[in-house]
Specification:
There is one protein chain. The chain is of the alpha/beta class and 270 residues long. The protein binds NADP nicotinamide-adenine-dinucleotide phosphate (NAP).
Length: 270
């Protein structure tokens, strides 16, 4: 078990949604927290909201898909806290739309944010996390368990995190580094949450239903770090989906194709 008191934690995308709630729980557990995000305004709002809990919160405006930004975040945290124990790779963007309507650039953008961003952050934090035998956490999605129709960009940008996390877990476990991947299902979102449409424009997220709260996901992150859990699939829906994808792949694909393509949630222009 990991005592979180005094640990230095970086949460990418900690300015909104699941990341902000995860930051809140780490702060309540006594950790020093750094949050990142692209919008300086959103970061400042979150920083002020989180600081009510007590300890100061560091906020660094940075785009996780930009290598120099990732380096700058890591350097800033080492300068301020002299250590990094835990990295939560949470920053991520989703997209909706059919492949036939999609700009190729959108695949590049999502791979940069959802895959290369976590790879770069993990690489640049690695020496510190190794030294402190800390944790690297990847926030993934049920859409990474199976490629979902209407979500080809999102699924294929998150799925590589599974391979990456498995590979580095094998390399780093002997050195005492814990690597966790959390597969998250539909979660309550901030009212102003945006996703990309198939052309790469940011549009509001419209969704009929969710199966998790942001607090439930944040608790699962803390618990995975605390108990050194490696793979966590959240909610009963997620566990059932995972079972069906594995044992009934053809049936799953047929059901998914029918359900997702008729749902307005998967169209990019709703
Ligand atoms: N919500 C769900 O239903 C759900 C389900 C499964 C998995 N997830 C995963 O959970 C994570 C958080 O999702 P959420 O719903 O909390 O999203 P959110 O409310 O949209 O928040 C996303 C956070 O990531 C930041 N971000 C986005 N792109 C970034 C970039 N290029 N560089 C740095 N920061 C960036 C955002 O700040 P800026 O916009 O200011 O950059 C924001 O702080 C994501 O990885 C997502 O894929 C979410």
């Amino acid at each position: 078990m990991t005592d979180l008191q005094g640990k230095s934690v970086i949460i990418t995308g900690g300015s909104k949604g699941i990341g902000r709630e995860t930051a809140r729980l780490f702060l309540q557990a006594g950790a020093s927290v750094t949050i990142t995000g692209r919008s300086a305004e959103a970061l400042e709002k979150a920083r002020k909201e989180l600081e009510v809990i007590g300890p100061p919160v560091m906020a660094v405006a940075a785009d996780v898909s930009v290598e120099t930004d990732c380096r700058r975040v890591v350097d800033a945290v080492i300068n301020e806290h002299s250590r990094i124990d835990i990295l939560v790779n949470n920053a991520g963007m989703s997209a909706r739309g059919r492949f036939s309507e999609s700009d190729i650039g959108l695949y590049r953008t999502l791979l940069g944010i959802n895959f290369l961003g976590p790879v770069m952050m993990s690489r640049f934090c690695l020496d510190e996390i190794r030294k402190n035998m800390g944790s690297i956490v990847f926030i993934s999605t049920l859409a990474a368990l199976k490629g979902l129709p209407g979500l080809s960009h999102y699924s294929s940008s998150k799925m590589p995190l599974t391979a990456f996390s498995e590979a580095i877990r094998g390399e780093l476990r002997p050195e005492g580094v814990h690597v966790a991947t959390i597969y998250v299902g539909f979660t309550d979102n901030d009212p102003d949450k945006t996703i990309y449409d198939s052309r790469g424009n940011r549009i509001p997220l419209i969704r009929d239903r969710n199966s998790l709260t942001q607090q439930e996901v944040a608790s699962a992150v803390i618990s995975a770090v605390y108990h050194h859990r490696n793979i966590v699939t959240l909610s009963m829906v997620g566990k059932l989906a995972s079972f069906f994808y594995r044992f009934f792949p053809r049936l799953s694909e047929a059901v998914l194709a029918r359900q997702t393509l008729k749902s307005r949630m998967y169209k990019s222009n709703t």
